[in-house]
Design brief:
- By secondary structure, the chain is an alpha+beta fold.
- Helix content is 36%, strand content 31%.
């Protein structure tokens, strides 16, 4: 079985640490673990391509819509940003944050 590398930007780590509900954080970590095991071969709806370089991991929990944005470099999934989505489209502010962090790698 192929395993992929996972890298979390420190801001993503902070986001995960701030989640107080153990089941909620566990569900997010399970989804990240699925990516580590299977790459992009995930159940339908869990992952969505945003553009040429960015993907969105979509996790729903108790009416919260967590979004973790990542890029892929040489079999390494680099999680750049995480937030709770409150509208249909990803806010431009969030995309700007991701693009800035992506430029840093």
């Amino acid at each position: 079985m192929r395993r992929y590398n996972i890298v979390l930007h420190f801001k993503v780590e902070e986001y995960l640490r701030k989640i107080n509900d153990k089941k909620e954080s566990s569900k997010i970590l399970q989804c990240i673990g699925l990516i580590e095991e299977k790459g992009l071969e995930l159940p339908l709806g869990l992952c969505k391509k945003i553009n040429k370089h960015l993907w969105e991991l979509r996790i729903s929990y108790m009416k919260k819509e967590h979004r973790l944005i990542f890029t892929i470099e040489n079999n390494t999934f680099i999680f750049l940003h995480a937030f709770i989505k409150k509208s249909m489209k990803i806010p431009l502010k969030e995309i700007h944050i991701v693009n800035k962090r992506r430029a840093e790698i």
